[in-house]
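User: Predict the structure for this protein chain, please.
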Amino acid sequence: MAESGGVSPAVTWGLLAAFAVHDLEELATMPAWAATQVDRLRDSFPKVPERVWSAMSVSPGHTATAIGLMGLVVGAASADGARTGGQSPFFQTVLAGFGLHAVTHVAQSAVLRRYTPGVITAPLVVAPFSLWAWRELRRGGVLREVDTRNVVSSAMMFPLGILGVHAAAYGGRRLARRRASGRPAAPRRAGRTRPMGDGA
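Assistant: Here is the predicted structure, written as structure tokens:
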């Protein structure tokens, strides 16, 4: 049943479901795949310091954290889409970025000429769902007018979002390890106090 003259929940919450299916593949394959790529690069560039390869390694915990953070973004977009019957600009931008994300997966595998995490569900789940959802938005009369700015912002949304959640996952897990090891916090400089309520 359509919501407020818009589209059905299958369109809005379907985005979150399709994301979950797609990222289950990435969760299952990313750590081992990344380790293989690091080993290949290490053999090809033996003079590169080991700390560089260590920084490029992706643990299962890091992968799960990054996917979970991205899932929060997609879940928020789906909820906003459901609330507005699909009219939400946030939902439509995330949906477009998700669909374009399938192209990058296939292109990456084509360039590398091998499997890359997510390339199976990209053409089988991500692309078909995105095209169907886009048609439903148009049929429901809630699709925004698409201009160059919309296309660029949608195309950049997922790559930037992925970089952001990986950076957040790396920082969060590093902080957690520091706290677990019992390292004392760095002392504050004398004479510098932060006003209460200042989150900067």
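Confidence is low (pLDDT under 50) at residues 190-200.
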